[in-house]
Specification:
Layout (H helix, E strand, L loop, with lengths): L43 E6 L3 H13 L6 E5 L27 H7 L11 E4 L4 E4 L2 H10 L18 H16 L1 H6 L4 H22 L12 H10 L2 H8 L11 H11 L10 H11 L49 H4 L3
Parallel strand pairs: 1-2
Antiparallel strand pairs: 1-3, 3-4
Helix pairs in contact: 1-3, 1-7, 4-6, 4-7, 6-9
Length: 343
């Protein structure tokens, strides 16, 4: 179950607009351990699903900052039932570190009567097997700030102090109208709600187009948290949101500034190498049965064009600032090439 679904597994409330439940476990893992969970190498496990855009943010940030050897990662499969994301990609369907078949078990270990969705990303305390947090916006910010002692040499500053107010402002607009906006289109239960969400989505994409026409990145001249948050929606736009969620005014490939911007990030180490288009498509088209009752996964679109030149370097900017690109992904975390270069 994700934050979009109800206890019955339905995603669309007939006659209603979609409203996301944003009540997450707000416990934080911090350098000073003020919530009882200090930053410690090897103590925690980041649980993700490559299909999920919210989890994809954490995968990218962890890669960019070089935290792979400090914070291990468990990967759920692309589909789930009404109860929970599951570890069906692992041998025996059990996470090799937490020794559980379902993420739900980590939530119930801490909160036996946990009433809300079992969501990714989540961070689990390995010694106790208990979930610490699933507050996805805060998770990535804390990886940038609270885990700084363990960043790789040359790690970028994704949340620079002097730009935080602007990053927060842009990120909030992007969340409201784009990240969550595509869901407000796709899960709308009445025509008026769908059309209002549709209009806000494309108005914001037009605003982003204007902003990015003259600057390479969203805030400042380097990659920041704001770019990570926009990218994970853009990369899913044509394979899923354009058709499945009826966000069909224009494809991403027809919005040339945003298409070039998205390809620029996709071709940057730490971004495209986290993307599994096959799992993304399987998740949306199989799990959302009230949107797609047949569960047929579309064969298209062709996605090999993500590797075409983008020309954004002509706008200047320094993707990693004074830092360097991340190392290649760990062999165990490499996405099969046939899953992201779909012809």
């Amino acid at each position: 179950m994700t934050e979009e679904s109800s206890s019955t597994g339905a995603y669309v409330g007939k006659g209603k607009e979609f409203t996301r439940d944003t009540r997450y476990i707000d416990t934080r893992i911090t350098a000073d351990g003020r919530d009882g969970y200090p930053v410690e190498p090897g103590r925690y496990r980041l649980i993700v699903a490559r299909a999920c855009p919210w989890a994809n943010r954490a995968i990218i940030v962890r890669r960019l900052l070089g935290l792979e050897d400090v914070l291990s990662m468990g990967v759920c499969g692309p589909t789930h039932d009404q109860r929970s994301w599951t570890f069906d990609l692992d041998p025996g369907g059990v996470d090799p570190v937490l020794k559980i078949p379902r993420l739900q078990e980590a939530f119930l270990a801490r909160f036996p009567d946990y009433p809300r969705g079992i969501t990714v990303p989540a961070i689990v305390d390995i010694p106790t097997g208990q979930v610490v947090t699933n507050d996805y916006p805060q998770i990535t910010l804390d990886l940038s700030t609270e885990w700084k002692q363990y960043h790789r040499e040359g790690a970028p500053d994704l949340y620079p102090t002097e730009l935080r107010a602007e990053i927060d402002e842009v990120a909030e607009l992007v969340f409201r109208d784009v990240n969550n906006g595509v869901y407000r289109c796709g899960f709308a239960g009445k025509q008026e709600a769908y059309e209002a969400a549709y209009d806000r989505l494309f108005a914001r994409l037009d605003w982003l187009t204007e902003r990015l026409a003259t600057q390479r990145f969203l805030v400042g001249d380097t990659i920041t948290e704001a770019d990570v948050r926009l990218f994970t929606t853009l990369v899913r736009f044509d394979p899923v949101y354009h058709g499945h969620f009826k966000c069909n005014r224009t494809k991403l490939t027809e919005m040339h500034v945003l298409w070039d911007y998205a390809r620029d990030l996709f071709q940057t180490p730490g971004f495209g190498d986290t993307i599994d288009f096959a799992q993304i498509k399987e998740h949306y088209y199989v799990v959302h049965t009230d949107v797609n009752p047949t569960q047929i996964v579309p064969k298209g679109p062709c996605l090999a064009n993500w590797l075409e030149p983008h020309g954004r370097e002509l706008l200047g900017g320094r993707p990693f600032g004074d830092g360097t690109p991340p190392h290649p992904p760990k062999p165990s975390e490499v996405v099969p090439v046939e899953h992201w270069a779909l012809g």
